[in-house]
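Exercise: predict the fold of this chain.
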Amino acid sequence: MNAIYVASLSDYNAGRLHGKWVEIHGDADDVYDEIEAVLKTSSQGSAEEYAIHDFEGFGGIELRETESIEDLVFIAEALDHYPAEVVKYFHEKVSAEHLAEKCQDGYIRTTEWNVDPESAVAEYALDYLSDHGTEGVPQLWRDHIEAVAQSLAVNWINDGTVIPIYAGAGTYHLVRG
């Protein structure tokens, strides 16, 4: 669940805490409606401004007090479809508006039970080689296809073609560089 704690600034400035956890789902208008409902119940009468005082479910992405609701909806949409580490990685590189598209274009796959980044990428390289066929590849190389995949993995990592993002417990998310 992606949620923000919305606090009324009028109440906050008057020394009171008035707010509510609001789930980020649907479109920005739905979220604005919920924020408006929080502000209408303010003890300060005509509360108009709010701040985001806390958040959860945003995969390690740090949000500001004044984060755009539209951006939060874009981030939540990407988090619904891609691993949090991948969304965080691309969030640092593109605007929230283009985040889901960048994740779709850049996310390759998730590998598990790998001891290091090279073995994670080598697993993908081996599948890549298998999918694209080995016809035309000398028999000597085909006999050592796992070593070829390992070498290809090292090259891809070093030249930035594939970037392994460590997620813990031997899990790596692979993205295009």
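Check your answer against the key: The helical segments are 9-13, 28-40, 69-81, 84-91, 99-106, 117-131, 139-142, 145-159.
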